Amino acid sequence: MRGMDFENTLKTPVLVLGATSLIGGHLLARLKSEGLDPVAISRRPPSNDACWLDGDLKDPDLADRLPAAATVFSLSPIWLLPSALPALKARGLSRLIAFSSTSRFTKTDSPDAGERAVAADLARAEAAVEAWCAAHDVAWTILRPTLIYDEGRDGNVSRIARLARRFHVMPLSGAGEGLRQPVHAEDLAAGALAAAHAPATRNRAYDLVGGETVTYRVMVDRIFEGLGQRPRSLPMPTWLFALVMRLARPFYPGATTAMGTRMGQDLTFDSSAAARDFGWAPRAFHPRF
Q1: Most exposed among 31, 95, 207, 265, judged by the fewest C-beta atoms under 10 Å?
Q2: What is the largest CA-CA distance in the chain?
């Protein structure tokens, strides 16, 4: 990343899975800026770009649809990856950089059964990827971001921004004192590429946090500021917030009482290993919409 040079160990050709994700466009741009010619695969590829292929990691004939690729960046949900690894290996895979999520840790004990299932799926998929790669001589790196944002596109920070625009106030469960480390999708793209270049990252997993740790309430205030509005958060008792979430569910499908519980929890991780091994140096949290 910024200010560091790496031995160029990225093997070509390069394939990007799930390239329509938040990170995908940023990663493709960076690969092209290095003079590489990546191929992207997605279930919804743009129709006007020759470097994109229409494909699904669940396709039984996946190996026949894939191009040759030595390095693979996987931006798709990691639980889709284990079943696709044999097809990728058949097309030349020797280096894998895959995204997972710190949700594998933060949602393990969630009161919401769906969130606990996501945490379990992430953990199982990571273990399966590591075991398969070790058995088939594929160097792997797993990257676990915290709260990903990309102004106007993500389902976390931008969802709060949409609520702030509409209602000019953001309810909080309690004081919103839980700590957060929002990380920008563009920084994650840069980090993935730096990890692919750095020999020290082989067969390791990294937690990737944003450049600043803030409380949930400060995060919300920064979102208001990014909209050009005066911050207006509304702390309320946890029982009242839970009631509001239940009433809002028909209009706000993502609303869960677990959201309120987490507002008071510290969801923080340490990226010092990533800083040491591939120069991880993300931006502070000042979104601009």
Answers
A1: 265
A2: 56
pLDDT of residue 7: 44
The two tokens of residue 204 are 């390791």
Supply 49's token pair.
């770009």
Single-letter code of the amino acid located at 95: R
Band (pLDDT 50/70/90 cuts) for residue 5 is: very low
Q: Read off φ and ψ for residue 211, nearest 5 degrees.
A: -80, 5
Check pLDDT > 70 for residue 6. Answer: no
**Bridge partners, residue 74, by sequence:** 17, 98
Is residue 126 domain-shared with residue 170, that is, in the same domain? Answer: no
Whether the pLDDT of residue 86 is over 80: the answer is: yes
CA distance 178 to 10: 38
In a domain, 222, yes or no: yes
Gyration radius from the chain CA atoms: 20
Q: Return the bridge partners of 214, or none.
A: 180
pLDDT (tens digit, 9 = 90+) per residue, 226-249?
999 999 999 999 889 888 888 877
Q: Are residues 141 and 252 in the same domain?
A: no
Q: What is the pLDDT of residue 172?
A: 94
Per-residue model confidence (pLDDT) at position 112: 84
The whole-angstrom separation of Cα 248 and Cα 210 is 30
Overall number of domains in the chain? 2
Residue with tokens 């292929």: 53
Indicate the DSSP class of residue 284.
P
Nearest-angstrom CA–CA distance, 267 and 157: 15
pLDDT band at 281 (very low <50, low <70, confident <90, very high): very high
Tell me if 138 is assigned to some domain: yes
Q: Answer yes or no: is 273 within a domain.
A: no
- Six token digits for residue 112: 């919401």
At 53, phi and psi to the nearest 5? -120, 145
